[in-house]
Amino acid sequence: RFLERSRVPAGRQRIAYAVDGRYQFQSWEIEVPFSVGSCGLSGDDVKRLVADFHAVHERIYTIKDEDDPVEFVVWKVRAIGAADHGDIREAPREPQRGAPVPRAVRPVFIHEAGGLCDVPIHFGHRLGAGARIEGPAVIEEETTTILLFPGMTAEADMYGNYSVRL
Q: I need a surface site. Which of 43, 55, 57, 106 has the fewest CB within 10 A?
């Protein structure tokens, strides 16, 4: 009903189920996805879920103990509505015109350069496609910061990805 109220078309609606389980007396849980038929969970489904738990536990920790009781402590249902955004990448960046100009200079400790150095700071969203930055330098993006050591270079592509080389 949530997806219907959110006006997600039926063809873009999906329900995902998972359970957090653990061996009895264990202090951590692992998530195990599962599916539910139109009649809910049967005894056979629960047996399959226990077997799936053992398999996931073995994949993560390289061991399983099928004689140890399994506790399912958190049951999860996710209502997923797929957005219709087409290609969600941003519009391609314009080509870089001229050499990139740093927006600031900050002291950064770089052992290979002998300690504290004044390093150019580039704002990634202002770099055009083909921009080439030579280290030492910093490129600041919304979700990450790239530190280029001396001798390293980074080149931006048209979608804001960077190829970093020594």
A: 43
